[in-house]
Design a protein that fits this description.
4 helices; alpha+beta; Aminopeptidase
Length: 162
């Protein structure tokens, strides 16, 4: 098994992180998701870094031989949106992006990134760990179920006007 370590995001790995996020979006596109704009690779990471900072989160990377081979973005939500109307709203840790490089899947990288995310959420007093998965992404869904996640709701859509 290839050795890797989990580290906090650093600009040292900026180009790898951009490549990983583009890999994820292209995979989702292949499953029927939206195609990324030509500027996605250069614009999404700065946007994600701002969002993560705004939500008191972090990005963790799996690194081997000086190269990032996996990424997880972690955000923390508390008492926002509908939860603002609840008596005892949960503090939720939320993963918005999880990606492992092609050729590195099945080697424990995704599990290690989820473990780093969970450790971060626990250390920040989160009550639960949430994420969404694109419905056609059956392999990701199976991975998350195997890690103990269970469906909480179903987000549904249909095309209109065509």
């Amino acid at each position: 098994m290839e050795q890797f370590e989990i580290v906090e995001y650093s600009p040292l790995y900026q180009e790898d992180a951009k490549d990983l996020l583009l890999t994820l979006q292209l995979h989702l596109e292949s499953l029927g998701g939206c195609a990324p704009k030509p500027t996605f690779r250069d614009e999404y990471l700065p946007y994600l870094l701002r969002e993560v900072e705004k939500q008191n989160g972090k990005i963790f990377l799996a690194v081997t031989d000086g190269k990032a081979i996996g990424l997880v973005s972690c955000k923390i939500f508390f008492g926002e949106g509908d939860d603002a109307f609840m008596i005892d709203p949960p503090k939720s840790g939320f993963v918005s992006d999880l990606v492992v490089a092609n050729g590195m899947r099945g080697k424990g990288v995704g599990k290690a990134l989820l473990a780093a995310a969970e450790e971060f959420f626990v250390s920040n007093g989160c009550d639960r760990f949430e994420l969404t998965v694109f419905a056609p992404n059956k392999s990701a869904y199976g991975f998350y179920v195997a890690q103990g996640f269970e469906p909480r709701s179903h987000y549904m859509m249909r095309k209109i006007g065509r």
